[in-house]
Design the sequence.
């Protein structure tokens, strides 16, 4: 028996309204054949088509697509990130929008989502998803990731938990998540484990983010028009100190030195790095190891050189947070406090 139009209207009214913003990536990718899992063009398929491929989402929410760009996420820059963040901020202010999802390339999900987590002023669920295999491939992961993300975004339990990244049946906090493998579908890992999992159309949370996010931060996306320029230098054996010279005259306000081990600085890089600081650029020591806090004055003379250290953030996450910090203060001690707070 068909439901009456009124009955189906009431059904629709009970379901949350979710806007899905399409930005590109492999979830919007297409390969030449079904066995191409790593050889394909990303950012090809429109978000409406991606949504149409998962009609099961209609059971959980009223979903609507919106294409903001069609790019591989390696091509994000501050301008694009701000455009996306500002659009989400507009949407979450609408009373008829209950949650926002973003389909995103996986390369830089960890950066965009961290920026959103630090700057959006909302308790509504904001869920970012991608895929490791294009929709044309056998065992494509995008459709289930999309469905699971809708389940998470539609759940009242997901409110107030910060920006979430849902991939491979896991719910991650934007603060901690990182892409750990170039190909595998289980690439997304969080240093301290995921917040929860999605099982049979239900989210199950097991932990909460401890660091302030969204409504509890001092950063408001609506007040930010540009991000101060911050660059990253990746340390290795036999570095070329002249590369650091470029940082003193390219408009950078800070340099994240992705040091070996505990943010260590090679003996022959000390002078060039001191010069960077003397030129006015803030020097932040981070670690290239992927985890662990950098210890102030541990192996380096931070007090003497007026260098600062990150907590456990990767150089790329520290870059975004330092840039946000610079919108508030130029004081190195204050910036370091911010790096340890979020
Ligand atoms: N799996 C992916 O999404 C990678 C595709 C592309 N490099 C991107 O990040 O958009």
Sequence:
């Amino acid at each position: 028996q068909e439901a009456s139009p009124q009955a189906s209207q009431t059904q629709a009214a009970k379901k949350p309204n979710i806007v899905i913003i399409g930005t590109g990536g492999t979830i919007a990718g297409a390969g030449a054949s079904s066995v191409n899992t790593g050889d394909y063009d990303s950012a090809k398929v429109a978000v409406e088509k991606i949504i149409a491929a998962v009609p099961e989402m209609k059971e959980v929410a009223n979903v609507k697509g919106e294409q903001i760009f069609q790019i591989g996420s390696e091509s994000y820059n501050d301008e694009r990130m701000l455009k996306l963040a500002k659009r989400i901020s507009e949407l979450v202010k609408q009373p008829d929008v209950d949650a926002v999802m973003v389909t995103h390339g996986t390369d830089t999900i960890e950066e965009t989502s961290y920026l959103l987590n630090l700057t959006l002023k909302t308790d509504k669920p904001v869920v970012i998803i991608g895929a490791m295999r294009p929709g044309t491939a056998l065992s494509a992961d995008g459709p289930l990731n999309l469905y699971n993300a809708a389940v998470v975004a539609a759940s009242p339990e997901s409110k107030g938990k910060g920006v979430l990244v849902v991939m491979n049946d896991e719910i991650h906090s934007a603060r901690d998540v990182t892409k750990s493998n170039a190909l595998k579908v289980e690439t997304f890992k969080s240093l301290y484990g995921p917040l929860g999992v999605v099982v049979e159309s239900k989210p199950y949370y097991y932990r909460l983010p401890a660091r302030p996010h969204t409504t509890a931060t001092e950063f408001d996306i609506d007040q930010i028009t540009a991000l101060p320029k911050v660059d990253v230098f990746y340390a290795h054996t036999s570095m070329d100190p002249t590369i650091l010279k470029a940082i003193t005259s390219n408009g950078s306000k800070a340099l994240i030195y992705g040091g070996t081990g505990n943010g260590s600085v090679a003996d022959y890089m000390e002078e060039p790095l001191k010069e960077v600081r003397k030129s006015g650029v803030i020097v932040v020591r981070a670690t290239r190891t992927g985890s662990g806090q950098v210890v102030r004055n541990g192996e380096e003379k931070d007090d003497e050189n007026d260098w600062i250290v990150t907590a456990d953030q990767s150089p790329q996450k520290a870059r975004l947070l330092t840039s946000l910090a610079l919108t508030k203060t130029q004081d190195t001690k204050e910036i370091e406090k911010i790096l340890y707070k979020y």
User: Anything to note?
Assistant: Residues 5-216 form a domain with the Rossmann fold fold (CATH 3.40.50.1170). The radius of gyration is 21 Å.
